[in-house]
Write a structure and sequence with these properties.
Blueprint lengths: L5 E10 L4 E8 L5 E8 L3 E6 L5 E9 L4 E5 L2 E3 L6 H13 L1 E2 L2 E8 L10 E7 L2 E2 L11 E6 H10 L5 H14 L6 E2 L1
Parallel strand pairs: 4-10
Antiparallel strand pairs: 1-2, 2-3, 4-7, 5-6, 5-12, 8-11, 9-10, 9-13
Length: 185
């Protein structure tokens, strides 16, 4: 069965400093036309950072669109022309003050397929070394560590409830348990 939708026209309806919104006219598989509105996102990375004591580095920060604080794994958007693995290294250092020479790429997930082209690349950073945080201007967050088992339990209790972190912790468990292969970088 052909499910492909062919773009007939595309219009940028909003351009912000970080995101843009497009409104496209598409041809459906049955030949009829439809409109698709979606957010264009530059892409992001998420980091599953493990200390030498096997504790997971987490962040607590306020997320304005949701109107509340969340506990999350470190993450950040990819700058134009930047390779995702370099973004991961940069974001880990900027947000947490940790760096690592032991990195593994786990995979890429698409968190908002109904309304955005955003994709998140997941990385494991192990054997962390503490350095100095370099937060971006206007960025406020608290860094904490939790034993890996406790972080996994925080997902089950709803204390960690953002999809990026839930996917990341699921994949980390699979990777550490030998059920998922990563690519060393």
């Amino acid at each position: 069965m052909n499910l492909f939708e062919k773009q007939l026209s595309s219009e940028r309806v909003y351009e912000g400093g970080f995101l843009s919104v497009r409104k496209d006219k598409v041809a459906l598989p049955d030949g009829k036309a439809a409109t698709r509105e979606y957010i264009v996102h530059p892409g992001a990375v998420a980091i599953l950072a493990l200390t030498p004591q096997r504790e997971l580095v987490l962040e607590r920060q306020f997320r304005y669109p949701a109107g509340r604080e969340f506990i999350e794994i470190p993450a950040g958007k990819i700058d134009p022309g930047e390779a995702p693995e370099l973004t991961a290294r940069r974001e880990l250092l900027e947000e947490t003050g940790y760096r690592s020479d032991n990195w593994v790429y786990l995979g890429t997930a698409h968190p908002c397929i109904g309304y955005s082209n955003e994709k998140i690349s997941y990385y494991v950073a192990q054997d962390l070394m503490l350095s100095e945080r370099q937060l971006d201007e206007g960025e406020f967050l608290e860094v904490m560590t939790q034993p890996l088992e406790a972080a996994m339990e925080m997902v089950l209790t709803g204390e960690i409830c953002d999809s990026k972190s839930i996917v990341g912790l699921h994949w980390l468990g699979a990777y550490l348990g030998g059920r998922m292969r990563g690519v060393p970088i």
